[in-house]
Amino acid sequence: MAPSPTSHRLLAGLLAGASVAHVANPGLFDSMVPRALPGSPRTWTYASAAAELALAAGVALPRTRRPAALAAAAFFVGVLPANVKMAYDWRDRGPALRAAAIARLPLQVPLVLWAYGVARKAEAR
Predict the structure, then answer these.
(1) 33-82 pLDDT tens trace
(2) Cβ distance 115 to 73 under 8 Å?
C-alpha cells in the first residue's frame, strides 16, 4: 500500500504528539525505560521526546523528509525494548491494561513500515 499524499503529515503529527505526551506525562514513560540503560529514566524520557520532536520536524520538511523518515523507522525499532518492558511489567494488571500493553508490541511493525514508506515516497520525488 503506497503512502497517501498526506502520510508524511500524519507521521509528523504522530511523532509530535508522542513528544508532547512524553513531556506532559513523563512518569508513565519513565517506567518503560529498561533498567539496563545508564542514567536516569527521566533523562531517557526527555531525550525520547526531543528525538520525536526533531523527527517530526524532519519528516514535515521536504528537504529532510527522506532521512528523517528513515531515522523514524529506526527509532520505532529502537523503542521496542521499552514496549516489551511495559508488557512484562503490566502482566499482573487488569485485563484491559494488560491487553493494551501487549497490543503495543505488534503495532511497531506498521509504524516502521509507515515511516519507511514515507522515506521511499520522498526518494521518488
Answers:
(1) 998 999 999 999 999 999 999 999 999 999 999 999 999 999 999 999 99
(2) yes
Separation between Cα atoms, residue 21 and residue 17, nearest integer Å: 6
* CA 125 – CA 112 distance, rounded (Å): 21
Q: What is the rounded distance in angstroms from the CA atom of residue 71 to the CA atom of residue 74?
A: 5
23: Cβ–Cβ under 8 A, 6 or more apart, which residues?
46, 49
- Rg of the chain over Cα atoms, rounded to whole angstroms, equals 15
Closest CA relative to residue 115, chosen from 63, 51, 45, 67: 67
Average pLDDT taken over every residue of the chain: 92
Give the length of the chain: 125
> pTM of this prediction?
0.88
